[in-house]
Amino acid sequence: MKITKAEAFLFGSRARGDNRKDSDWDILILIDSDRVTNEIEDNFMK
């Protein structure tokens, strides 16, 4: 699989530092949608 450049951002309570031990992780991943292949989509949807 070809690696696509991506950016990941943490947001929400963990990013602010006011999370609790049971807080979830809020992560935004941005990629160039023109470069997304069917293989990447298939792996993500598993």
Which helices and strands, and how do they pair?
Blueprint: E1 6-11, H1 13-16, E2 26-31, H2 38-45
Description:
The protein is an alpha+beta fold. It has one domain. The chain has helices spanning 13-16, 38-45; strands at 6-11, 26-31. The chain has a two-stranded antiparallel sheet. It is elongated.
- Spatial ordering of strands, largest sheet: 1-2
Could you give the distance between the termini? 16 Å
Element-level helix/strand string = EHEH
Secondary structural class: alpha+beta
Helix coverage percent: 25-40%
Q: Please state the average pLDDT score.
A: 83
- Which band does the percent of strand residues land in? 25-35%
Report Rg. Answer: 14 Å
Shape designation: elongated
Give the low-pLDDT segments.
none
Helix run count: 2
Tally of domains: 1
Can I get a quick summary?
The chain has 46 residues and is of the alpha+beta class. Helix content is 26%, strand content 26%.
Jot down its keywords.
46 residues, alpha+beta, two-stranded antiparallel ribbon, 26% strand, elongated
